[in-house]
Design brief:
Length: 460
């Protein structure tokens, strides 16, 4: 009995010893195996699975990244190219900023089906992108491409990125934004485009951005904004357009931003002539936090804040043209203004002496300022569009009461006025009062009279 008990205890001890041996072997062999799966020069963390390979002078994406890595950090290396076979793993976060990437092959990220954040910022050699560079990233929520010296963007670069919410394109060299460039980004809330070289905002440039909350466009070179450029931005709350080259901004464009709360328009050369009236009217109704809008022209309003101009400052302006693409005052004179010019033509003028835009006289058709009191302003400080030339200043002044007393009696036969007529246009609308029209009947009578007088002197 005792021998049997001893044998049983010995078997139990052997079993425990074997179990301990297997545990030691697992700790020594299996566990280190997991560590050795981490790529060389990288550090791996288990929860959440993170592979950190930053600042290791890597020239390519390292091999051996665990397939189930949730975060992969490859920033501050010397990686130059991203190819379709560069990523043999799935991850949610991929940082590649601060490299030397010059080329991204179309479909390079197509295997990263669950990627939510991609940071390609601070790659100054990445000046061009292929159209399908981000193909397959339908779950991407945040895309960073700041400071990459991008000059253009392919029209389909953001195709099918339906989940994107944050897009960082600031401090590149973009000079043009194509129509419908962002049309698939229906869930985008933040768009950063500041610090580029954009000059114009077209009608369809922001089409589709129905959920955009903030739009940063400051520090560009924007000179013109189409009056329908913001038509889909009904949920926009923050708009930055400061430090651009804007002289005017269509009031209709701002009416489309119904939810706007913070607006910065300072550091622009605002013109506060008639073209400013739509924006001024919008500010009268808007209840927002806004920066100042200091007038650069005309001379008598320089330094004033456009928002606080008076109704009488626009009393003599022509009515807005609903068909104008710019959404500001009409680009052609109204019938009333044509009538005024027909009654007050300069005594000696020629079409060649008027080289300014028709906008010049449009802004000041009935200025009460005397020609002698108009100061000379350097042409490099104030756009010539908003100043009166010597010829224009010499035009006879019409009393406003006379103007409105004759309202509705315009000459409908006037087809163009002298500043607007083509070079070879025969201005029949302004016949001289001293000219006499010679008809065939009058010519016959004249010839008959001459012949009669000649015969009379001959036979008298």
């Amino acid at each position: 009995m005792e021998a049997r008990w001893t044998a049983r205890c010995s078997g139990t001890r052997n079993f425990k010893s074997g179990l301990t041996l297997w545990l030691i072997l697992w700790l020594v062999v299996v566990k280190p195996g997991g560590v050795t799966a981490c790529p060389r020069l990288c550090v791996c963390y288990p929860t959440p699975m993170t592979v950190s390979c930053q600042s290791q002078n890597l020239t390519i994406v390292p091999a051996g990244v665990p397939y189930d890595s949730q975060r992969v950090f490859l920033q501050n290396n010397r990686i130059t190219e991203l190819r379709a076979d560069s990523f043999g793993f799935e991850t949610q976060v991929l940082w590649l900023y601060g490299n030397n990437i010059t080329w991204i092959e179309a479909g390079a990220f197509s295997n990263l089906r669950i990627l939510e954040e991609l940071d390609l910022g601070d790659n100054p050699s990445l000046r061009h992108l292929e159209g399908g560079a981000f193909r397959g990233l339908e779950k991407l929520q945040s895309l960073h491409m700041h400071r990459c010296k991008l000059a253009t963007l392919p029209h389909d670069i953001f195709h099918k990125l339906y989940s994107l919410q944050f897009l960082y394109l600031q401090e590149n060299q973009l000079h043009f934004l194509q129509d419908d460039l962002f049309s698939d980004l229906v869930n985008l809330t933040h768009l950063f485009l500041h610090g580029n070289r954009v000059r114009t905002l077209s009608e369809n440039v922001f089409r589709g951005l129905v959920n955009l909350d903030r739009l940063l466009l400051h520090d560009n070179r924007i000179r013109q904004v189409n009056r329908r450029a913001f038509r889909d931005l009904g949920r926009l709350t923050i708009l930055y357009l400061f430090n651009n080259s804007l002289a005017e901004l269509p009031g209709q464009a701002m009416k489309d931003t119904q939810g706007i709360q913070f607006l910065r328009l300072n550091e622009n050369p605002w013109s506060c002539g008639c073209e400013a009236r739509p924006l001024w009217e919008w500010f009268r109704k808007a209840r927002i936090s806004s920066s100042e809008l200091l007038c650069s022209s005309p001379t008598q309003r320089r330094g004033q804040d456009l928002r606080f101009l008076r109704e009488m400052d626009f009393a003599l302006c022509p009515l807005p043209d609903p068909g104008s693409l710019a959404g500001s005052t009409t680009t052609t004179f109204s019938t009333k203004t044509r009538w005024w010019f027909s009654k007050n033509k300069p005594a000696s003028s020629s079409k060649s002496s008027y080289q300014k835009s028709s906008e010049t006289v449009k802004a000041f058709p009935f200025s009460p300022v005397k020609p002698q009191s108009i100061p000379k302003i350097a042409s490099d400080t104030i756009p010539s569009k908003y100043e009166l030339s010597d010829d224009e200043a010499a035009l006879p002044k019409l009393d406003p009461e006379e103007y409105w007393a004759n309202y509705g009696n315009e000459d409908s036969s006037i087809r163009c006025y002298e500043l607007e007529c083509p070079p070879n246009y025969d201005s029949a609308a302004f016949p001289s009062s001293s000219s006499q029209i010679i008809t065939p009947k009058t010519l016959h009578l004249l010839v008959f009279s001459i012949v009669s007088l000649s015969l009379h002197f001959l036979f008298s």
